[in-house]
Amino acid sequence: MQIFDRIDSLIDADDCRAAIEETRALLLQLEQRHAIDDFLLDLMTLAFIVECYGRGFELLARTLARRRLAKVRLLSGGVVSARAK
Question: Which residue in 10, 20, 12 sits closest to 42, CA to CA?
Answer without folding.
Answer: 20
